Sequence to fold (112 residues):
Amino acid sequence: EIHLVESGGGLVQPGGSLRLSCVASGFDFSSAAMGWYRQVPGKRLEWVGSINGVGNGTKYFPSVKGRFTISRDNAKNTVYLQMNSLQVEDTALYFCDRAGRRGQGTQVTVSS
Fold:
């Protein structure tokens, strides 16, 4: 059974940084592409970015490209989302994703 646990969220001021982590289990992590999504209450789920299984290929939603970086440590079954230059508009519940399965999410709030 796929199990994903996100952590690292919190309250940060505009311009600040956070690093989210997602620990995975229940599947062959090292061969699995992973994604990050976010959702604001009342709005649709939004794709943030993805990384391939090896970790040498990433894609990003245009509004986060250049500010967010996805990486992974296959030895730790963990995928990361480094978020820099955070904006109020980045406030959301963030999820990691494997083939449509997501964890409980971790809340990121950007506010002064």
User: Anything to note?
Assistant: The mean pLDDT is 97. Residues 19 and 73 are 14 Å apart (CA to CA). The first strand starts at residue 3 and ends at 7. The chain is about 0% helix and 50% strand.
